[in-house]
Design brief:
Layout lengths: L1 E5 L11 E4 L2 H4 L6 E3 L2 H4 L2 H9 L45 H21 L5 H26 L14 H4 L6 H18 L11 H23 L2 H16 L13 H4 L17 E5 L10 H5 L10 H6 L16 E6 L5 E7 L1 H5 L3 H4 L5 E2 L6 E2 L5 E2 L17 H4 L9 E5 H15 L4 H14 L9 H6 L11 H13 L6 H8 L16 E4 L10 E2 L2 E3 L19 H6 L11
Antiparallel strand pairs: 1-2, 1-3, 4-10, 5-6, 6-7, 8-9, 11-13, 12-13
Helix pairs in contact: 4-5, 5-7, 7-8, 8-9, 8-16, 9-16, 16-17, 16-19
Amino acid sequence: MKKSIIFGAAVALLGASLSSCDDFLNDNRYPLSSQVVNSEFWSNSVNVENQINYFYEDFLGYGNGTGYGNFYFKWTTDDQCGRTTFAQWLNQSVPTASSNWSGPYTEIRRACLMMQGVESSTLPEASKTNYIALGRLHRGRQYFALVKRYGDVPLVKEVLDPSMKDELYMERTNRNEVMDFAIEDLEFATKNIAAQSGKTVFSKDMAQAVLCEVCLYEASYARYHQKDETRAKAMYQKAITAGEAIAAKYPICDDYLSLYKSFNGAGGGYNGLSTNSEVIFMKPYAQDVLMHSTMDYSCASDGIAGLTRDAFDAFLLRTGELSTGASDKGEPVMVTDEDGNERIKNIDIQGLLDVRDKRLEMTTYPMLIFQGYTWAGPNTAAMYSMSGYGVSKYDNFTISNADATTANKQFTCAPLFWGARLYLNILEAKAELGTLTNDDLTKYMAPLWKRGEIDQTKCTVAHLSSLTDPANDRGVSNLIWEIRRCRRCELMMDDDIRYWDLVRWHMLDKLDTTKYPSIIQGANVSMVTENKPETIGDYLDCSYGQKREWNDCQYLFPIPSDQLGLNEKLTQNPGWK
C-alpha cells in the first residue's frame, strides 16, 4: 500500500492530509493529484514529462480563450489608458487570498516533488539530471515571481511533510537570499537542461534568457532600491554574461510585426513564428484548438485601451532626435453633411507617424478614434479608443472579420522570449556598468532602430548622451535614459514588461496622475468643436474622473490575510493593514 499526501495550496502554509489507496492508476492519473512517493511512477519518463508540461501553463502569452493575457491587457502603466474603466493601482487593499502568493508556491511544490521523485527513480542519470534542471528552472522562476511582488518570502527548498511544523510555518526569508537561491537554480538549469534550443520547449537557451532577465532585475533593484553597488555590479555582469552567451543565435528580424501577428505555420502575410530567427521561446496557438481574444478586445466597438500621450511622445523622430516640440495635431478629415455643412469626420495622424519611429506607426492606427468619431480599420469593428489612439500591433488583418471581432477566435502566436528583449537587457546592463561602446550599440541597438527607420548614424554613445529629455527627472545619465526609452518603445504593451521596469528602476511613482498628467491624456483633439469630448487642455481625458496618487507601499504587494492567519510568524509588508 502506498502513502500519498494531498496537495493544493501554498507550500509553506499547506494544510496537508494523509491518505492511502490501493489503486495506483486511479490515485496517480494525469494530472497529478497527490504527492506520489512510489518510485514506479517517477521511473516512467512519460509521467515525469506530464508533470513538466504543467509548467507551460504559467506562460500566459495572449491569454487563453476569453481570458486576458500579458500583452495589451496590462493597463496600470504609463503606456495605456484603461479599456472601460480607469486602471487603478494593482493593489488597493489587503486581499483575503491571492493566486499571486498561492500560485507560485503550488508550482514550487510541483517542481520539488518532481525533482525528489526523479532523484530516487531508476531513470538513467542523464535523464535525471535533465529533469532536475527543468525543475530548478521553474522553481527559480517562481521564486523570482514571489520576490518581485512580496519582497521577503518563506524559502522552501524541499517537499514538506505535515509533521515539519517549523518549515511549514516559517518566517519570511530575506529577499536577497531567496534571489540568490533562485539564480543558483537558473544557473544549474543553463548548464544541465538537455535541449540546447527549441522555440516551444524548455531549453538551455530559454533558461539563459530567463537568467539574463532575472539578473538584470536584481541588479537594478540592488542599485536603485537597496543602494548596494557591489551586488548591483555583480548582477549586471551576470546579466551580460547570460545574454551574450546566446545573443548571436537570435538576430533581430527585419519585420517587427511578424513577432506579434504570425501564425504557428506560414500564412497570414507572415512566416510562422516558429521559424522566426529572433524567437527564443513562444506560445503557439492553433485555430479551433487553442485560441485567444487579444484582437477582439483591441478592436472592440465598446471602447479599447489606447496609447497615452506620454507613450506617443516617447518615440523618437526618425532623425534620431527627441519628439519634444514636434507637432502632435493631426489633419481633420472633412465631410459635407446633408445640410451642406462641413464637419469633421475623423482626424488623420499619418503625417505625425511618418516623421516618428516607424514602430509607432506599426503600433497604432493612422486615424484617431474616440467617442463620436469611430473608425473601422482593416478588418476591425467601428471602434473607438479611450485615448484616441488605437492599438493595431497585435491585429492580423488576414483573419476573417468574424473571427477577428469574436472572443476566443484568434490564433496568432505570442513571443515569450526573443532577441530584442535579450538585446535590450544587454544594452541596459552595459550602460549601467559604464562599459557601453559604439560597437555594442551597433550590435544590439542599431538593428532595433533599423526597424523603426531611425537614422542609424545617430546610434552612438555621443549622440545618445547629447539628448536631454525634460522627462528625465531621475538623475540617471542621458545615455541610460535613452536605452530605457528604446526598451519602452520596442516592447510597448508586451508581456507586462513596463510595469516591472518601473518597479526595478524605483520609478513606479511615475504612475501618479497628479504629478504626471500626460499619462491620463490622450490625443490632441483641439480642432474638434462638435461633439467635443472631455479633455485635459487640448488632449483627451482618459481618467474617467479618477486619479492615482503615489504611496510607497505600492512597491510591494500586500500579503493575503489568510496567510497571516495561518502563520503567525509572517509579517505584513509596510503600509498595508
